[in-house]
Write a structure and sequence with these properties.
455 residues; alpha/beta; Rossmann fold; 7-stranded parallel sheet; 6-stranded parallel sheet; 17 helices; 13% strand; binds uridine-5'-diphosphate; binds 2-bromobenzoic acid
Length: 455
């Protein structure tokens, strides 16, 4: 293996959570298909708690974020965890680079999550090509870029907000760190800090595709050259160009595909609502209750991912009472579910991966965003991509059961719903085109590789 003539060796360093690992892992597989060796560096904690899929064409290695035993979510504070990740991450990343130095395939390029801007400094210390890989929409990145450079002053005192290349945005459409001043200051600093390093990065990659946000990509390209390379969905679900690429292959939680598929396969086409709030779900008891009652009251079947940490928030006896109408699971293979014909709509928190997966598989959505970039993505789902509705939130911050039922009906059975379906199919076609040979994302991947590879 070590003697194989690779065109180069890239090291991919994701922020160590599911929603950031998936896209960088998939992108690495693309690079392997272009003749490169790719190593994905996870944390020791992640490496010790799960098994990467053996069929994967990637190598796996580790750095430490300083939380080898319990993971960084166990840290005393967000601020402390990010600092520790920087100190120990920088040191162990350097060790990893050194370890590869005198081998047949030393590291030529580091692709880092800009949530970890220190990775670029380490790369530069070793004279290695460094590429930032953004895991949120170009729109959201551009908003943060504006704030970081003082072009958008906070707190926002007049609305709507105009940013070149973006539709006019209301306060509620902005990322939560902006619309809810003072919320998660350490994370807000982290998302703004993404731009502390991009001027020095040798390339800036974004997991989106040009057609989804052409004006945002064009606007941002005026300040730094951005290369949209997405969607980073396993090839099996798009153009099927990569062999054996039908799963992300690094799942932090176990799913029971057999149970989900069997259940879905007994349901008529387009008859099931799929619900998930992603890997960091943390809803209030009241919100869980409103969702539960809405589902019970609606006439549609549903498949609901309720993570173990959220289960206690379900109304008592809910699972028994719904019978065969609904299936509640702790985790699923979301791509498998979304591509099942039985699914008619995805009620989602609008995490960027989930949204991109729904667009790529042509599934219309009900957006129930919770925080971070999800609010902005939900705005686009409804008003830009026109593939669904965004649920209205009451003064108490809750989306009430009547609103949930209304949104579900809009998507599942209204005239507008037919348009959502048509538009979703269109986005699927465009996503396939973007990653296929000669498509915009495919060309950008080639351009990226040519920046650090000689042959
Ligand atoms: N996911 C999954 N099974 C589930 C729920 C989610 O495989 O039951 C995957 C989903 O396909 C996506 C990722 O987890 O790739 C979640 O990322 P996203 O950006 O949507 O949300 P986050 O977890 O970062 O909030
Ligand atoms: C995890 C922690 C903080 C943030 C995110 C994930 C995200 O939005 O991707 Br800001």
């Amino acid at each position: 293996m070590e003697n194989k003539a690779y065109r180069g060796h890239v090291l991919a360093l994701p922020f160590p959570i599911q929603g950031h690992i998936n896209p960088l892992l998939q992108f690495s597989k693309h690079l392997v298909s272009k003749g490169l060796k790719a190593t994905l560096a996870t944390t020791r904690f992640i490496h010790n708690t799960m098994q990467p899929q053996s069929s994967s064409s990637l190598q796996f290695d580790t750095i430490s974020d300083g939380y080898d035993e319990g993971g960084f979510a166990q840290a005393e504070s967000i601020h402390a965890s990010l600092n520790r990740m920087e100190t120990i991450g920088s040191k162990t990343l350097a060790d990893l680079i050194i370890k590869n130095k005198n081998t047949a395939n030393p590291i030529d390029c580091i692709i880092y999550d800009p949530f970890l801007p220190w990775a670029l400094e380490v790369a530069k210390k070793f004279g290695i090509f460094g590429a930032a890989f953004f895991t949120q929409t170009c729109t959201v990145n551009f908003i943060y870029h504006h704030v970081h450079h003082g072009l958008l002053k906070l707190p926002i005192t007049s609305t709507p907000i105009s940013i070149p290349g973006l539709p006019v945005l209301e306060l509620d459409d902005m990322p939560s760190f902006i619309s809810v001043p003072g919320s998660y200051p350490a994370y807000f600093e982290m998302v703004l800090n993404q731009f502390s390093s991009t001027d020095k990065a040798d390339a800036v990659l974004v997991n989106t595709f040009y057609e989804l946000e052409p004006e945002a990509v064009d606007s941002m390209s005026k300040v730094c050259q951005v290369l949209p390379i997405g969607p980073t969905i396993p090839s099996f679900y798009l153009d099927k160009r990569l062999e054996n690429d039908n799963d992300y292959g690094l799942n932090l939680l176990l799913s029971d595909s057999f149970v989900c598929n069997n259940w879905l396969n007994t349901k008529p086409e387009g008859s099931v609502i799929y619900l998930s709030f992603g890997s960091m779900a943390s809803l209030s008891n009241k919100q869980m209750e409103e969702l539960a009652f809405a589902l019970k009251g609606s006439k549609f079947h549903f498949l609901w991912v309720v993570m173990a940490s959220e289960e206690a928030k379900l109304p008592k006896k809910f699972v028994e009472e719904i019978g065969n109408k609904g299936l509640v699971v702790q985790w699923c293979s979301q791509l498998e579910v979304l591509s099942n014909k039985a699914i008619g709509c995805f009620l989602t928190h609008c995490g960027w991966n989930s949204t991109l997966e729904a667009l790529s598989l042509g599934v219309p959505m009900v957006g129930v965003p919770q925080w971070t970039d999800q609010t902005t993505t939900a705005k686009y789902v409804q008003d830009v991509w026109k593939v669904g509705v965004r649920a209205k939130v009451c003064e108490n911050g809750i989306v009430e059961r009547e609103e949930i039922e209304f949104c579900i009906k809009e998507v599942m059975e209204s005239e507008r719903g037919k348009d959502f379906q048509k538009n979703a199919k269109k986005w699927r076609e465009l996503a396939i085109k973007a990653v296929s040979e000669g498509g915009n994302s495919d060309k950008n991947i080639d351009e990226f590789v040519s920046k650090f590879v000689n042959s």
